Amino acid sequence: MNETSTSSPRLDAVDRRLLNLLQEDAWVTNQTLAERAHLSAPTCLRRVRRLMEAGVIERTIAIVAPEKVAPMLTAIVEVTLERQGAEHLDAFEALIRDEPAVQQCYRVSPGPDFVLIVVVPDMPAYHALMHRLFTAQANVRNVRSFFAVKRSKFAPRVPLPQ
Q1: Dihedral sign, CA of 76, 91, 6, 43?
Q2: At 154, phi and psi to the nearest 5?
Q3: For 14-27, how does the pLDDT look when each residue is reduced to its tens digit (9 = 90+)?
Q4: Would you tell me which CATH number, out of the four given (3.20.20.70, 3.40.50.2300, 3.40.50.300, 3.30.70.920), belongs to the domain 66-147?
Q5: pLDDT band at 59 (very low <50, low <70, confident <90, very high)
Q6: This prediction's pTM
Q7: Which CATH number does 2-53 carry?
């Protein structure tokens, strides 16, 4: 992995191979990962640590099947702000960042200013969240929510060229 002048890491074929393998199973042992990537264990460990230190690997998480834990309500929420100045957009992002029920937040264009993926236990929790985040916020002009009735695919994976 080489660094560019903007300190953005340049990934070589081995880095991409490791990242693809880790996106399939991040809990694989270093020994197994090294074997699958055709590397020695120390080289594999060193490269993975470099990818983590460079921020290419943001974090390692467990993806929980929501239907196995408890009933959940997933909503895709479009939010349009009244004022779209940089400070207003940043303030909204800061508000959303601190809310655990908001799983994902995207600033989008054209259309609404933000699209959120929200997961809550039930409709009362959704209403409380909407009030806290949107009704109580003077700068929110419009909110449209779409409720997921079935999750057909969930693949939190970054496609990497070979």
Answers
A1: negative
A2: -145, 110
A3: 999 999 999 999 99
A4: 3.30.70.920
A5: very high
A6: 0.82
A7: 1.10.10.10
